[in-house]
Structure formats: structure tokens, C-alpha cells
Amino acid sequence: MQTIDKNILKFIWTLFLFLWISCAFAGELRLLEHFSHFLNKNIKFYIYLPEDYGNYPVLFVLHGAGGDYDDWISNSNIISEAKSYNLALVFPDGDKYSWYLDSPIDSSKQYESYFINELIPFIKERFPTNVDISRLGLTGLSMGGHGAITLLLKYPEMFICASSMSGILDLTNHPAMAEPWKLCQLLGTSVGNIEAWRSNSAVHLVTDNVLQNKFIFTDCGLEDVYALEDNRKFEAICDSLNLCHIYKENSGGHNWTYWNKHITDHLMFHQSILSPKVYVNIPQMNDESPAVVRYFPNPFSETLDVEFTLFNEQNVTLGIYNILGQKIFTQTLGLLSRGSKRLQLRPLEWHIPPPAGTYLLILYVGENSYNAKITYQPR
């Protein structure tokens, strides 16, 4: 019986998947190929453009170890989720074990240089009216989470925000995985080349100066035996430097079940920073009319004045929530008498100043709550 070559099967499957996704979801998914001088070969990537072809910010979505450019397309629901956001998505090919870095010992593994010096300029040239190359973000899982955070830290002038799911954020913490993850082939052994390992690890790259006005979101599964320790270490460093950084731990392991469950959190995070004019509904928040709430200016930068009127004596609390539904700031005002009230907020004086984006202001009055959307644009 005649057998079909694996590569032919993969091509047929990829073609079917590409056509099905293109037809099923708003927007367009394109498969492109170009030549890389840094890698000395042709390399493919996917790009997803929203339906109306506006000038959209770009989110690079990086795959994990063992994957390639169609890993996210084949294994996740990211394209079906993407139709709700005003983001162009790029799915690069980071090789199975490139770790999105430049190898000091293998001249054929210069994926960092390819990404920065060839892929981004190619996208800018190919889609001059479809994407806004001045608004770039990065996200990824596992090895791709490592790539997203380290590329932001190495090139803060190019990227605004980065997020990581189950990211391997400290290569020096994994000498036992040097062979399975091909790190020795890229960086040499950790014993004799520890500086190369450190200079490509997020926990050793993060500094107070680098992360000023940059926004990072990381999460990890509580059952993740590979990445949990790295992520907790990275979070501790960000906390010690008082940096603006969101970190979440969720149930789950190092697998597609976890990543599919949480990709929406990352799309919302990047949307709130790269394209804050569009509001994404926060789940489990009521939609009562904010008739008694006024806020100005909006957008605001250094101060926000909130005015409200009480029709009788009430206990009042004010809360600010981000696009992920996380509490950013609360102030208990206590029992207030009836009449008009005015409150002035100064985000720069909060413990962790919030990043630019759209937020939900909630005024809790007795047993009721009143919502108002606000946009923060720090100078």
C-alpha cells in the first residue's frame, strides 16, 4: 500500500487549516515567506489582519520549544479570539530551539538579529497602511514567553509591552535541561559560559531603568514544574524594584490546555496598552447607569476629578479596575452626607502607577454600584 510523505500530510493539513480559519473568522490570515540573510534560508510566518484593514498595532506571538510558525494556529483558539481585538498578530518561526537569541557559537542561529533587523522591517515594508510599527507588543508561551520578555528588555526602544505564559525566565535555573532544550548548542555549557546564559535570561536583564514606561504581564500554572520558580523569581525582582508589572498564578500545568484558557487575558492586556481607545467588557461587572458620576478630563494624565451626587447619607467606596478586571486602586470614603461631592485622583502617586489604557471606575454607594469608563494616558 502506498504511503503519503509526512511533509505532504503536514502541507495538506496546514492548507486546510489556513482555508478554514480564513473563512470562519473575521479578518484575514496570510502565510508569507521571505529570505533571511542572518539565517541564510527562507523562513515562513503567519500574519493575521483584522477585517477592516485599519492601521493596527502589531502583537508578535512567539511559539514554544519544539514548535514552529503554525504552532499557535494549529493548537490554539487565538485566531477566533483575535476577532474581538484591534490587533494585527504575527506568528514568526523561531525554529524548534532558537530561544529567540543570537548564538555566540553557531553563526546559523541568529534568530534575535533576524527578528529585529529583518522580520520587523519586512512587515513594515509589506504592510505600510495596515500596521503601525510604532506600536509593537510581544507575547509567547514557554520558550516564546522567554523570547517575549527578553526581547522587550533588550530592545525597550522598539517595544511597548510584553507578556508571557509559562515563560522560562531564567535559563541559568535549568542546567539539567541544557541538552533537551539545545541550550548547549546555542550558548555552550552553563559551567564555562555562565555569562552568556545570564545575558539571555529575563531575571538577569530586568533593571529599574530598562522597564520605565514599559508594561509586562506574566502568568504561570501552579502545577508547572518547568516555569513556576522562574516566574516567582521574576515577580520578586519586579516587586523589589517597584516596577509596574502584573503577575498571575492559575491552576494548570505547562500545556495547551492552560495556554488556551488564558490567551484572552493576554490579548486584553495588549489591547488595553497598544489600542486603548477600544473598550473590552470586564466580566462580572454590572452595567448600571453612571448617572450620578462625572469625571474629567477624559482622557486624563496627572489628575482625574470625579464628581458624584448623593441623594441621602451613604457609605461610599471608589475602585479602579484594569482591563483584566484586576483591582488597581480603592479608596474607602466612609459614611458621606447627601449632596454633591468631588474627589481628585493622582495615579502617579499610587504605589504602582498604572500603564496607559482604558479602565473602569466603580463607585460603590451603599448596596449599589455605578460604572464609568476612563482612559489614562500618562505623559
Can you tell me the CATH superfamily of the largest domain? Alpha/Beta hydrolase fold, catalytic domain
CATH architecture of the largest domain: 3-Layer(aba) Sandwich
Low-confidence stretches: 18-25, 277-291
Number of helical regions? 10
What's the SSE blueprint?
Layout: H1 6-24, E1 28-36, E2 41-49, E3 56-62, H2 71-75, H3 78-82, E4 88-91, H4 111-126, E5 131-141, H5 143-154, E6 161-165, H6 183-187, H7 194-198, H8 202-205, E7 215-221, H9 228-240, E8 245-250, H10 256-274, E9 293-296, E10 304-310, E11 314-321, E12 327-336, E13 339-345, E14 357-365, E15 368-376
Parallel strand pairs: 3-4, 3-5, 5-6, 6-7, 7-8
Antiparallel strand pairs: 1-2, 2-4, 9-10, 10-13, 11-12, 11-14, 14-15
Describe what you observe in this structure:
Helix content is 27%, strand content 30%. With 379 residues, it is of the alpha/beta class. The longest helix has 19 residues, at 6-24.
